[in-house]
Sequence to fold (667 residues):
Amino acid sequence: MNLHEYQAREILRRHGIPIPESAVADTPDEARAIAQRLGGKVVVKAQVHAGGRGKAGGVKLARDPAEAAAHATQILGMTIKGLRVHRVLVAPTVAITSESYVGIIVDRASQRPVLMVSPAGGVDIEEVATETPEKIHRLAIDPRYGLLPHQGLGLALKLYRDVAQARAAADIMQRLYAAFYAAGASLAEINPLVTGPDGAVAALDAKIVIDDNELDRHPEIAALRDTSAEAPSEVAAREAGLTFIKLEGSVACCVNGAGLAMATMDLVKYYGGEPANFLDIGGSSNPQKVVAALKIITADASVRSILFNIFGGITRCDDVANGIVQATQQLPLTVPLVIRLTGTNEVLAVQILTHAGFSALTDMDDAVKQAVARARVA
Amino acid sequence: MSIFIDQQTRVVVQGITGRDGSFHTRQMIGYGTKVVAGVTPGKGGQLFDGVVPVFDTVVDAVRETQANTSVIYVPGAVAASAIFEAADAGLALIVCITEGIPVLDMTRVLPYLHERGARLIGPNCPGLISPPKSKVGIIPGNICRPGRIGVVSRSGTLTYEIVHQLSTQGFGQSTCIGIGGDPLIGTSFIHCLSAFQADAETDAVIMIGEIGGTDEQQAADFVQQAVTKPVVGFIAGQTAPPGRRMGHAGAIISGSSGTAADKMAAFARVGIAVMKRPADVVPLLRERL
Fold:
């Protein structure tokens, strides 16, 4: 789960990381009031789960409260990468003398949290990694001991020659590591970490991504989820216990298992079609899940055919067949449906479907070819 | 032979009285797996289905039944604790089916296992099966056939699809193993390739990967250095968009690494036969054998 910048800033602030005071506004009037309170120049930033906010016009500088309100008027209601902006962050602008990057991720190769720092801050760290990899310094942290003081200081000295600044940055790294574990994050980054004319080190922007598997044990973090910032179909899918990602094509796919779902999408493409979505109905499917899946799929106007690809293991084919029958009774389909079922209780499933007037295939390639062909005709 | 499990495998089921644990325990017993014990704290002394003794702790189960392998079906929030317990009881092989274990839990679990020399398969995996000797986990036994092809995969149902293609076209399997779809897992492609290479009853290996991470690229390097048996590979997620998690926690393209194209190229570079679709598996295997 992605946190908004303002939520990430609040977590860092609570962990004692110096970060300029800011506030969020849902209306231009609120933005004006915050700018008034902060005094001086401010920056107004769209709070959406999308990168490249600045390029899209979602980040603007304001000289006074009136301009802050004007920018908020413009940014609120704006759509960035398909996501509508409902909220803006208003923060003071600060004079900076240097920008660095500090981030923690869980690294697959070392199987540990890795602290990454770079003196090239304020820009996309992926770009730095590709273009000037020598500017990124990494350290795998042993989770049994945490970030040891000399390790933090060693990395901080890659950023600052001044020892007082390095000590301040090392302290921020310790706090970021603590915040990372406390929040159950899979990524926590400060970009940029800045120094001001007075030499003080502070965080200016924050990004935190939470491991979805941690949400049950962190209800206070789970409560930060902003469903208005996500695609409605994906919210509905999550609530039904499905994994759904909308894509641009016309062949809707409903599959059990993530690997098979990806392979099905790939096969749609292989036979000249374009998948309309990724949808995993999960392992132990009950008919209600299938009903929910079909509702989500059929709400997408660009869908021209629907393909079910089920390999029954734990999933019982008859459960899926019952779900298809129930769902199509509740909401009659306007696009062709192609069903492929193999595995546990497949014979029973075919009986259920045949009785309801559907036909079912057993070969994956045959089914995908048919779904692609029918999407073209429809 | 086969790898990791065979007739000597004596299984203790952690979470045997739960919904998934009880269902799959029956399936394993039905397949012929030696399920010698179960563990559910507070239910020690009971008999599961009148045959399998249930213990309060894994240590008790191992002491009383000489179990040498654990399979875990407990919920994600407590699964890390179950793995620690299995390792503490001295089990050398731990198979964790559970999906939804926090990644930060795994950062603590893995060094603990490493220090004790225990092998973890998974988490978030279907387990493994050596037809017809033993199955530990949830891979449907009826789609597998005894034979000489090794299968290793990051996925579940996609593995079944490919195993089904093999079985119905005359290629049985020595062992099929699902290593799991999470970013941090106990047993990698390389561990499995190495074991298949050493196994006298395996003639060729099918490797099924997906987007995310660089495990497949590392596996390709290993194949070049240390595997003389034919390898046929597949990568799921050729059409996946970057930055989105495709179901599995580990299946996400971030930045330029982890794409299907990159992985397929790495396979091809070292002479692994690359499937474009699951149905290519048998033709490519025939070509290579």
Chain A has three domains: 21-92, 98-222, 231-377. The first helix of chain A runs from residue 5 to 14.
